[in-house]
Amino acid sequence: MSPWRPSSTVAFIGTREFHTGPPALRQIVIAAAQHAGTHDLILNTGAAEGADQTAAISALQAGGRVRLVSRGWLTIY
Length: 77
What we know:
The protein has one domain (7-76). The chain has 77 residues and is α/β, with parallel strands linked by helices. Helix content is 35%, strand content 21%.
């Protein structure tokens, strides 16, 4: 199976004011990103400050892969 199949990816979008929101929300995003990282799902994100960066870092720390979306695709392992 190709690692780039659409079914093997998950997108994270959020808010730049993520850290001022409820702590429970941050824990949900971190847990979901870690789950993606440990279950071979590629996390797609724009890596904006806040929720996007938190998700990307959490997935990478869990051993996952992150694909940054900008004007094109850039994959970071």
